[in-house]
Amino acid sequence: MLKTYTYRSLQESDIQRLITRNTDPSRSIQQSVMAIMDEVRTNGDNALRMYAEKFDGVQLTDLALGSSDIAALASTIGREQQRALEIAFANIHRFHETQLRKERTVETMPGVTCWREPRPIERVGLYIPGGSAVLPSTLLMLGVPARIAGCREIVICSPPQADGRINGYIAYCLQLLKIETIYLTGGAQAIAAMAYGTDTIPKVDKIFGPGNQYVTKAKSLAQSLTNVSIDMPAGPSEVLVIADGTANPAYVAADLLAQAEHGADSQAILVSTDQHLVDEVQTALAAQLTQLPRADVASKSIANSYALLCENLEEAMAFSNRYAPEHLIIETDTWEPLVRKVSNAGSVFIGHLTPESAGDYASGTNHTLPTSGYARSYSGVSVDAFVKKITFQHITAEGLRNIGPTVEVLAELEGLQAHKNAVSVRMG
Ligand SMILES: NC(=O)c1ccc[n+]([C@@H]2O[C@H](COP(=O)([O-])OP(=O)(O)OC[C@H]3O[C@@H](n4cnc5c(N)ncnc54)[C@H](O)[C@@H]3O)[C@@H](O)[C@H]2O)c1
Ligand SMILES: N[C@H](CO)Cc1c[nH]c[nH+]1
Ligand SMILES: [Zn+2]
């Protein structure tokens, strides 16, 4: 069950240990991923086939499925599942379409006009996890903002399943998104393929998507070894629940287990002001675990997690801000003052009736979020991530008279005469 710590008895070194997760201290993941990426760079599609056999247990001839295969697979799913995917698609679309707001044009001095306009990133690669669980929801979370942004080429990679194909739910989402091809490759090799390009898989400008530690390391290496950029490190899922005596222990336990079932390296942290609640959550965890098909994975993750007892909710929030969770759930009757104090979190779920699963699937917010403390500096995926915001400016004769002398002085103080001349030659 959850190990329990008391915040006031922790030293700074203990806090550092408690907020650190999935950093690959032995560099073993980095080494494996480097080797995989080199292999893909050198041997392209043949390397992808070799890794499909090694990691996914399938022999592939074709690395891609086209629209007729996708249509056949999509037709196998039930009406209820279609409907749920359509509602999720619509809510995600509704939430994300507001993000492409036009910005104001600014006249910084009379005759000097500056503004910013978004332009889609032309070629984007979306990674859809499919190792221990296939996540069609992730395809919607990445595909919808890519479509809203207007990206010209959307490359999708996901690990092949045991039958050498994808499941029908992924296929249905591809149809909702009007995407006609999917590439059957997963893990670090998929990221390498999109970063370097192979005969079959196009090289992209930016790679998006969550994944396990291999995928996440490959994304960061791809960014440093090639000119591809990435959305953010979105690795093993995590949740931190702040709960006081008003929380329902069954709800808290369910929320912790919902992230714990993602993987043994996931973390589910309970931060509470109430010892009695912690005890009740432990009991509820034990009871609910026995009912879960993925109890094996979830119990390993719970063993890799902890509960922390704090004196008050301010202290609880201070710890949460240091931990910087991917998901923060606030299960207290009074939450407004706490919400104002959130400074580091990927996505926040407020009140007793807001399960994090709602955001994972269908409320509309994006579930591709920074993990391992990266919520201190990264935002989750949004339409912004699929565009570049380009600045523009225009200067009139009046503007040049206004701004010119300032630029000349600044160029001169930096010793850059040619910069000064570019102004002076126009001012006559
Ligand atoms: N942060 C987020 O936004 C977010 C969202 C959804 C899911 N997730 C996380 O994504 C992850 C999905 O992981 P997954 O494993 O189920 O699927 P995955 O698709 O990320 O990884 C599967 C692939 O990993 C590779 N792999 C497995 N073992 C390997 C090894 N020993 N060496 C090299 N490569 C290996 C294989 O190629 C396999 O196809 C989970 O950790 C989940 O918590 C995060
Ligand atoms: N909780 C995951 C993000 O960490 C997203 C997800 C997809 N499916 C279920 N959950
Ligand atoms: Zn989830």
TrEMBL record:
GO terms for molecular function: histidinol dehydrogenase activity. NAD(+) binds at Y127, Q189, N212. Zn(2+) binds at Q259, H262, D360, H419. The active site is at E326 (proton acceptor), H327 (proton acceptor). Keywords: Amino-acid biosynthesis, Histidine biosynthesis, Metal-binding, NAD, Oxidoreductase, Zinc. Pathway: Amino-acid biosynthesis; L-histidine biosynthesis; L-histidine from 5-phospho-alpha-D-ribose 1-diphosphate: step 9/9. Pfam families: Histidinol_dh. Its EC number is 1.1.1.23. Catalyzes the sequential NAD-dependent oxidations of L-histidinol to L-histidinaldehyde and then to L-histidine. This is Histidinol dehydrogenase. The gene is hisD.
